[in-house]
Amino acid sequence: MEIDPFIFRLSIFILSIFIGYYVVWSVTPSLHTPLMSVTNAISSVIIVGAIVAALANSSENIFNSSSTFGFFAIILAAINIFGGFLVTQRMLQMYKKKNKK
Amino acid sequence: MISANLSAVFYLISGILFILALRGLSSPDTSRQGNYLGIAGMIIAIVVTFLSVENFSTSLIYVIIFLMIGGAIGAFIAFKIPMTAMPELVAGFHSLVGLAAVFVAIAAYLNPEAFNLGVTGNIKLASLIEMSIGAAVGAITFSGSIIAFLKLRGIMSGSPIIFTGQHFLNLALGVTIFFLIFYLCKSQFDSIFWALIVISFLVGILLIIPIGGADMPVVISMLNSYSGWAAAGIGFTLENTALIITGALVGSSGAILSYIMCKAMNRSFLSVILGGFGADNSSDSAKEKADQKPVKSGNAEDAAFLMKNASSVIIVPGYGMAVAQAQHALREMVDKLKKNDIKVTYAIHPVAGRMPGHMNVLLAEANVPYDEVFELEDINNDFANSDVAFVIGANDVTNPVAKTDPKSPIFGMPVLDVEKCKSVLFVKRSLSPGYAGIDNELFYKDNTLMLFADAKKMTEDIVKNLD
Q1: Where are the alpha helices (DSSP H) in A1-101?
Q2: So what's the ipTM on this one?
């Protein structure tokens, strides 16, 4: 009997939760704020779904009901991607060691 | 154009880069490199998506335009935002992830052919369940984060909003969501899908309004987690590995942060979620006690004198420092102390501030080297051997009652042993109890000197007196 591809995705999902568990516990508490902003940025990889939705239309009708939602989602996710990574970068630049000016 | 298999491999690579991005945060030295890996992962995911589209139409131009508009807004916000506004920024960003998840789910529902999910009105069962979960969790994340944002920004009062039957209503709505998903799978009526989203928005609002200001660290972490689960739900629908991996990472990351925050307050996750903590400030007995007990108060001159004659000082910052934006003045003060060969360190309680790591970012902004900043368990034993503890804007996290009075609502919460210091300087605007509505015994100790003033002004005055 063949295994449903869903099971493979579920396996990836569950293994990733474990990876996330161990990786996040090793994050130093002083970087918890950057952790939140960077997780914010990476969860906006949802933009791939938005792009597919936005491009799935005929050339005559660029903004049909489905693709319009896709376009809106692109804007939202893009705000998050740029905003999230840049603000994380800005924060991380500030973390300096002693006597290094 | 690349094959589905090749693009799946690239999505996997971008997922791995995201894992490495989080791994980099284990130390400030590797964190910047980690952030670049994250950006690389994102670029790969987006480029691969473009390459796997089969027919390029004019809409591609629009996609790029919209991407640029969003990117410009995001970059603008990232450069303009002051560091003190970081908690509300993160809450705002969470809401965007949630709303994006809802929009993608709607797009997939309206046009399932585009995602190979079947045809309109006859979407594959598994996909339908996945997308409804993604949409529901996304909607809860969106409206919940908006409320959190409004509370953090001060537009909405930070005090909990409670009404009778609240928990029952939430439960009823939660059950309704499950029924709606069930009926959606059976009938595939559009109206049920819309109802599902509307009710989820409502649940998000109801879930956050009863939670008070100082529980915000838990709320933000929790919404962080939700945004991850929403992304994962959409990832299953789109059969996209990068999205599934990321969703799982973010989901567990937020969950761990919530756990850490709850533990630091000695409260169960459930009690935070049910909310209402700190709602009744009716602890009359505490107020009476406050009237009776004598308090020693001093001015900047006294404080400067005490610190000048100390050999070690521990700074305990809290939310009040963020409100007063006193971090730069504080750094100036510490510089002066260090010139006099006084050892200065910083002690940070996990729930100081309004989000995990809030104080660390503010101190980093003020150019405080991160190796002078210590977490609760690393520094708590040092208070006994130090001369002065300078408490600025913190309150409940220093309250010895948590160790002594089993009846206190914060009993059992790990606190900083500030009272063990030879003397304690406590900067505070008034004697009012902290967020938890509990009187702080520390105020009345013999070795405590209260400095009644705005945190920033007081620190600046001390700096002047240190010359």
Answers
A1: 5-25, 32-43, 47-55, 65-94
A2: 0.93
